[in-house]
User: Fold these one by one.
Assistant:
Number 1:
Amino acid sequence: MNFRRQSILSIALVTVLGAAALPAPAQQPQAQPGAQKASSVDADFVRDASAAGLGEIGLSQIASQKATSDDVKNFAGTMITDHTAANQKLATIAQGKGIAVSTEPMKAQAAAANSLKQSQGTQFDAKYISLMKKDHAKAIELFKKEADTGQDPELKAFAAETLPTIEHHADMASKLTPGMKG
């Protein structure tokens, strides 16, 4: 065998063995058989809706402990219950489509939670109520958009079914007053 041919074979062998030693690429979540691949719009909705839900839960857990108003505490309990249920339902749908849900709240909600923890008394109640009004207005937009323009029929249906609950939450938040005793 001449030197040139031996060099080419050596390079080829090193290349093949080197490739075999590389780790396998990370596996993406597997969709269930028969499931359609979700569009990026639907995947964005899942990520944003699940993160927003986690934020509502986190903020409401703080409020259930620190609020001075019984009405605010009751509202916080409703937020925890309803958003936990919605996130669980969304996670089940998303899992079947191979879409990952968020594991943490949106950055703005996490920052708001840190700020909220520093508040006391009726100032706390006022901040929490303000956050709930703002967050629910954003959630209504998010869910309306998915219900109207989403590509996945199951996610569109979830958004349409969940939207009245979110609108009810916004209405409830608009009626809360800091320091109000229930």
Number 2:
Amino acid sequence: MALSKQTLDHILEAESHLRAAIRVASTSEKPLVVKQLSQLLLDMENCKKIEELMDMLEDRKPGSRGNFGSFFND
């Protein structure tokens, strides 16, 4: 099940705010702060990608290799 529109909208808004914070932090904060903000942004992006991957796995027909090719061969 894909992320709901409301959830995705909030994630996109939060990503926008994080990007702005990273931009400001890059000139006025310690590198560790920029790294941690960047990690949050990366984790949010990964959350969206993992949700897509889980949808692909859940919608896969039994015995089908789907878009994964030989990745699931025994």
Number 3:
Amino acid sequence: MKILALVPSSKFAKNVARDLIYGCWCQGKRIGGISFPPITLILVGTILKQTGHKVRLLDAAAEGINLNLLLKIASRYEAVIILTSTMSINEDAGLLNKIKKKNPNLKTIVFGSHPTFLPKDTLSKEGIDIVVRREPEYIVRDLVSALEKGGLDWKQVKGIGYMEDGEYIINDFYPFIQDLDFLPVPDRRMLLENADYFNPVVKRLPYTTMFTSRGCPGKCTFCSSPSFYGKQIRFSSAERVLKELKIIQKLGYKEVFFRDEMFTLSRKRVKEICKGIMEKNIDLTWICSSRVDALDKEIMSIMKRAGCHMIRLGVESGMQEILDNIKKGIKISQTTDVFKWAHEVGLDTHAHLMLGAPGETLRTIDKTMRFVKNIDPTIVTFGICSPYPGTLLFEQVKEKYPEVGDGSSCDLQNLHTQGFYNQAFTGLSSEMLSSSVGRAYRSFYIRPAYLLRWLFRINSMDELRRVMLAGTQVINFALKGD
């Protein structure tokens, strides 16, 4: 079967970090123009290729494909597959509808957070034929193989939803993939040759991304990851991780950005990976994400020696009562310790913060701004806490404000920069929150000492170019908004 694995562009932003399957994407100047290769879609495409299907990956945003050319290309295929989410579902459905008008016989298949949590709502959008819920790899494999055979067997595939005679048919969930080692190494050769994914925090180019685990033990009320991946945390073995790193190095990549929610959750596995990197002389620098309660100075030192240069951390707030309100499960003192250890070890840090979480006031925002400057991360991103399907926060908002609907009116145009039903859990208006985000960026980034420190730490002309470009976008957002 001829399959197009498609990454649509957006009319709202040139860059969208569209690789996390459970949603909560970021975009625009606020994140310095960062973009990521679509590794989730590449893995789906790799499995389809191994099953005997003809698959093309098309990243319309990265390749600069305009709408007319995209419609011409897509209409030649038998099926189009898209990773979608709450913040892009309406725009994605509109594109798929245009594709189907060019080729009515083509099947459109979507997976991601919105199809998982709101399958009926997703199917109600014109242009979408089939939804895939939760992990897509084996479901899409079975679905496409059944579609190729013809007949109606495809309707029995677990994990899918479709409409029949005006009725929603939502099949039982497909079981979670228990052993991630059985998944193939994503075929990164599917990417356009010399594809440029801009990322100012990367030290060495070219870089790629990688997933080595699924799930998070956190109970954060704003995050859909636990609902999407289930309660059990699943890991690729250290041996499997090292195998993929060696393949990545052989392909010519210089750096890996691990996109796991919690790369450091298994201390034993992290040590095995780091030991393997050093013993096998794998020449890759890397970035990962963690929680502050899953790190200590020893493990950070080991990671540093094995090539890690940055850790991304969900700080969320500088107020303990707000952390408790969102069930973050961390203490302010833990955050302070981890950032202190990072400075001592020599690791860069990326702090993620949310304004407008339950209980937020202008006073708590001011205190959070002071806290962030005290822990002194290398870079920081501020966003507005937004309720999305699949989260406890969304259910609480919907109970009070049913008009929130499917949440898709908080789209890529206003994502993380404008308040979205925050009045359900704060006393702050959307205007106050938008203003506070800009104020937070100005407070942190437009400081002479901070800017000078960045200039002195740059080691190459290429790094200078990327930092200047990203910095210009962030400061422009701080001064003018996105």
